[in-house]
Amino acid sequence: MTARRSGGKPEVRRRVLLVGVLLGALLSTVRTFQLTALEGDHYRMRAQNQQGDTLSLAAPRGTIYDRDGIPLAASREVFSIAVAPRELRDPARAQELLRQHLGFSREQAARYVDPDRAWVPLPGRYGAEVREALDGVQGIHFERVVQRFYPNGDIARELLGPVRLDGVVQGGLELEFDSVLSGLPGRAVVRRDSRGRPLPGAMVRAVEPVPGRDLYLTIDYDLQEIAEQALADALVRTNAVGGELLLVDPNTGEVLAAVSRAGAGRARNWRAVTEPYEPGSIIKPFTVAALLRLNRARFTDSIYGEEGRYALNGRVLTDVKPLGWITLDDALRQSSNVALAKAATRLAWHEQYLGLRDFGFGSPTGVSYPSESGGLLRRPNVWSRQSSASLAIGYEMSATPLQMAMAYGALANGGLLMEPRLVREVRSRDGRVERSHAPRVVRQVMTADVAAQLRDVLIGAVEEGTGRAASVGAFPVAGKTGTVRIAGSGGYRVGAYYASFAGFFPADDPQLVIVVKLDEPRTRYDGAGGGYYGGSTAAPVTRAMLEAVLAAHSAPIDRSVIARPLNIAPGGVDGAGGQATWATASRVVELNAVAAAESPVVPPDSAEVPDVTGMPMRDGVRRLHAAGFRVRLEGAGRISRTLPEAGGVVAEDVVIRVFGEARP
Predict the structure, then answer these.
(1) What is the rounded CA–CA span in Å between residue 578 and residue 463?
(2) What whole-number distance in Å separates Cα of residue 386 and Cα of residue 72?
(3) Quick one: which of 341, 413, 517, 547 could link to 244 by a disulfide (CB 3.0–4.6 Å)?
(4) Residue 416: other Cβ atoms inside 10 A
């Protein structure tokens, strides 16, 4: 009996053990089935999240070029850096590397490696050389960032628009053409260890980013640089609070240069299309154009100027100087408010409205730029009895400087209103042209004959009228000045004015339309003090800019048009009594008689002639303009001497003759 009981215990233990093994195997099989078949996707996802991250790789934005392929905005790969202090094997060495390669002070670097902090993002973005220097240091982590940069500084930044560090575009051409420039992002996977730390060299690019396409603008880099300097100098000289300057090709509608300034710095956007203003007297040629086109007047018609003061429909119109009987062309040349308002009464209200509307006022131009304003031109059914007179002299309406430039372009090119263009082409990264923007005529607004008549009078407005300070001597400039009060919340502000000049050059075969607008100029451009008129503040900006354009070797103007002989009278002198000479693109020659008559005001201030010997023509002209002098160029290349010579103290109204090493 005892033997049977003792022999049975091992058998029971074996059976129990077998059952336990079978149950364990069954449970293990069930759990394995549960983990793999039923919950496999969940745990695979957790493993992937723990062992690796999927990152989006930003695509490089397309490059924005000027018309000749000079880059204005481009993209480059930089890195943001963060420190995980608790992962550092050698904090002292890491601190020294941060000081050496990132330029941090000892105190800053010590804070960044402080083990009490788990994760420390470092300020700024860093190039590939810093990435290479710190690569492999455990605890220092990098993130690739595609950043916008500007190879040629701030040129045309208000046109381009800002792009934040995170790649978000906020305005300008960057926003207007974001779908073209942005490209397609890629994707990468970063492998990590069991603690979530990145493994060295473990980032795998799964999908490469596709770079954006490139944009070629109509902007000319050299003209843009000249325009920016000219406007910056003007704001300093006139104490203006802001301003606009535009250069447009009247034959194609291409915007060649565009500058906006607000206060002491660059405007946030291109105000020439977003902020309309009452244009004042520079609107007067379009009132006259309607009169001529509809045969309601001729330039030889006489109008009584009422000696500069005229009561009309409950308001009093005044002129700067009293005028009696004058012809219509003299009224435009002398910018008579009284005469132009009286002439406008020959037009029916709807005719006057359509005359302005045809030139593009009151509707957007269609330029490729966000938030363009169409300005204001009310329909005749809401006009008052004073509206016709107000519109004739540039009040009760608003226009943008770009609208004004395109309207003057129609005066310059024989009567065609062109659509403005900022973009010439869209190209793929391999240089293929994907989209081309050709010039487009909006409408014909007048005959070539009417345009020619207006051109001749506008030449007179510069040579004999209010725009004399825009004259470039032997080269004819056509244009019109404007001075208009600035409206505020409770009416017009006391002592606040916009001063402007609009015109084209050279007048006999126009290649450039120029529009200058200054906000609240508070002193004369030439230093005489106290003035705010467009003729003494905005017109000189045109002259300074055109002198610099003629001195620039690469400006996009047809120099064969400019290189023409002047009208020479028998005896070797021209009809004005000055010395006979030839006008060439590299030799801006002012006739003695014209130079003497250019500035009606002789300021009392004197200044020392700066030494510009050896400088390139354009740089020397810029420095002389900054010193307050007007310039006459003779020759080309680097400057060999000036007359008066450097160091001489002369009155600021003296024209400095600048001689180039290369003589024509």
Answers:
(1) 15
(2) 48
(3) 517
(4) 20
Which has more confidence, 58 or 48? 58
CA angle 153-157-159, nearest 5°? 150
- Is residue 470 a contact partner of residue 478, using CB atoms and an 8 Å limit? no
497: which strand partners? 485
**Cα distance between residue 102 and residue 88, in whole Å:** 17
CA dihedral 326, 327, 330, 334 (to 10 degrees): 40
pLDDT of residue 44: 65
* Residue with tokens 């973009």, as numbered in its chain: 423
| Residue-wise DSSP of 464-475 | TSTTGGG-BTTB
220 alpha carbon, distance to own chain's centre: 11
3-state secondary structure 304-334: ECHHHEEEECCEEEECCCCCCEEEHHHHHHC
Average pLDDT, integer, range 461-473: 85
The 10s digit of each residue's pLDDT in 329-365 is 999 999 999 999 999 999 999 999 999 999 999 999 9
Q: Give the three-class secondary structure for 88.
A: coil
Residue 323 has phi, psi (to 5 degrees) of -130, 140
| 193-214 as b/e: b if 16+ CB within 10 A | eeeeebeeeebeeeeebebbbb
SS3 632: strand
- DSSP strand pairing (512-519 vs 564-565): unpaired
Could you tell me where the beta strands, DSSP code E, fall in 584-635? Answer: 606-608, 630-634
Q: In sequence order, which residues have a C-beta less than 8 Å from that of residue 152 and are 6 or more positions away?
A: 70, 71, 72, 221
Per DSSP, the three-state class of 263 is coil
What's at 217, amino acid-wise?
L
**pTM for this prediction:** 0.76
Q: Specify the DSSP element, H or E, that contains 124.
A: none
The string of pLDDT tens digits covering residues 468-491 is 888 887 788 999 999 999 988 878
CA atoms within 13 A on the CB side of 119: 3
Phi, psi of 61 (to 5 degrees): -70, 150
Residue 627 has pLDDT above 80, yes or no: no
- Contacts for 90 with CB less than 8 Å, ≥ 6 apart: none
Tell me whether strands 255-262 and 120-121 are parallel, antiparallel or unpaired. Answer: unpaired
- What is the rounded CA–CA span in Å between residue 157 and residue 151? 12
E strand or H helix that includes residue 369: none
Give the pairing of strands 214-217 and 198-207. unpaired
pLDDT-derived band at 123 (thresholds 50, 70, 90) equals: confident
Q: What is the pLDDT of residue 21?
A: 80
- Nearest in space to 423 (alpha carbons), one of 159, 158, 244: 159
The arithmetic mean of pLDDT across residues 580-584, rounded, is: 34
pLDDT for 152-201, tens place per residue? Answer: 888 999 999 998 877 788 899 999 999 999 888 777 776 655 555 555 44
Query: 550: closest CA among 220, 222, 155?
Result: 222
138 CB contacts (<8 Å, ≥6 apart)?
87, 88, 89
DSSP reduced 3-state for 159: helix
Amino acid, single-letter form, for residue 567: N
- By the 10 Å C-beta count (0-12 exposed, 13-18 middle, 19+ buried), 429 is classed as middle
What's the length of the chain? 664
CB 409 within 8 A of CB 513: yes
- Confidence label for 416 from pLDDT (cuts 50, 70 and 90): very high
CA distances from 607 to 318, 620, 648 (A): 37, 16, 8
